[in-house]
Amino acid sequence: MATPTFTVPAEIWHVIFSFLSSSDLQAASLVNRDLRIMAEPFLYACIKWTWTASQTPPIAQFLQFIVQRPEVASFVHELIISGDHFDCEWHVYKYQSQKLQVSEDVTNQLVRYVKSIDVPYIKDWIQELHTGSMDAFTALLLSELPNLNYLHLSENFVRESRWIGMILRSSLCEAQNNHISSFAHLREVLVQCPCQGFNIREHSDTKNTESVLPLFYFSSIQRLCLSIDNPTTFTWTGKCPPNPSRLTSLDLSMMREGHLGQLLSVTQGLRNLKWFWAYHPEIEDKFVTDIIDLDQIIMDLSHIQETLTDLTIGARASEWPGDLWPSTLYLNGSFNLSGFHALERIKIPIPFMLGFSPTSSMINLEKYLPKSLEWLTITDDLCFQEEWEWEYDKTHLVGAVRSWLQDWRRFTPRLRGFCLSGEVQRLEDWQPEMIDGLKELALEFGVHIQVTGKGITNVFG
């Protein structure tokens, strides 16, 4: 008599398994061989681990399992490994990452396997595995996942990322018979780097640029969310610059203007850019300065002006506890986006468009915005700067917006709305007279206007 496993079509089992939890899939895989074969691709499709001071992911055990059953590695499509700071936020860079406690038998088994991988740094890699380096173990895991399409590495996993970077470079630059995944299916990568804290240069000169740039070479990449250090000299990993033709969304922090342009010069299909401008004296160098070079930023962005539809820029300086007086920032140039004919949504700090104070040399918004614009959002980023004077403004910002909106159908005919966004401040921190002025503009010109602050939104028009 046939068992239910054989009488039910595999397609039906696949539908059933797609709704089961990990624990249910684990239980199903233990029933018999047939159910295990059908359940395991769902069970291992998404690997989620957390690494904290009190919680260690079973990465060594899973690697041992892959060595014993290599087909399991092909089931993994998503790898999400989280954890940040090891409960020591601002001085985390002073300490080495925690070491894994792995039995000698398991380590030796993995070392025997690693010896079959043809890379020039094999001896050093093996030595790091013996020390319990999470970076070395994570690199080994990544090298064995041929069908990976989503990768999320949080702060604890990338604060020491030398070996991860070397594996990424080897997948591009070494011989193809080195048994390392080609990452041919990798579409989305999110890498959360730890904050660079007090006196970091006294403890580390390490930069992650070489470890991260190889990601731009993978032809299947569609979305990247990265923090990239500013190198002394910007050079691409391969013999030629990459051509990430499928990359449409980039979320970038740390890298400053100048280097930003070198990066964007190869992303000429990019539609969505979110970039975070940051400065602190502790990491100041040739590129990380106290000058917001608006002309350079526009020049950098010009590489993608034909395709860019969504632009979000955030900014912060002196972000760490103990900074009683933020460093003074200086603006250079103007933020002219009028030539970006595909740009539909813009979100930028007020100083980038209007300066730090109402008495600054204010621009005519209508001359600096693209005709394709649908939404403009200006934010209170950098409002803790001493040179910021918009908190007392009642009329100047309203006047700048009025100058634009009174003829918006000519300058920005696709306009759907304008937003004054309090990313840091509360709604009541904006002057009531200014809010009333924006409300009047919404009614007068028939434009949707929002004023927000700390999760509260006023909508006009």
Summarize it.
This protein has three domains: 1-43, Up-down Bundle (Monooxygenase), CATH 1.20.1280.50; 49-197 and 208-229, no CATH class; 243-461, Leucine-rich repeat, LRR (right-handed beta-alpha superhelix). The chain has 18 helices and 15 strands.
Task: Please specify the SSE layout and strand pairing.
Elements: H1 4-7, H2 10-17, H3 22-29, H4 33-43, E1 46-50, H5 59-68, E2 78-82, H6 104-114, H7 122-131, H8 134-143, E3 150-153, H9 155-158, H10 162-173, E4 188-191, H11 209-212, E5 223-227, E6 249-253, H12 259-264, E7 272-279, E8 291-293, H13 294-301, E9 310-317, E10 330-332, E11 345-349, H14 350-354, H15 365-368, E12 375-379, H16 396-405, H17 408-411, E13 417-422, H18 432-445, E14 448-453, E15 456-460
Parallel strand pairs: 1-2, 2-3, 3-4, 4-5, 5-6, 6-7, 7-9, 8-10, 9-11, 11-12, 12-13, 13-14
Antiparallel strand pairs: 14-15
Helix pairs in contact: 3-4, 5-6, 6-7, 7-8, 8-10, 16-18
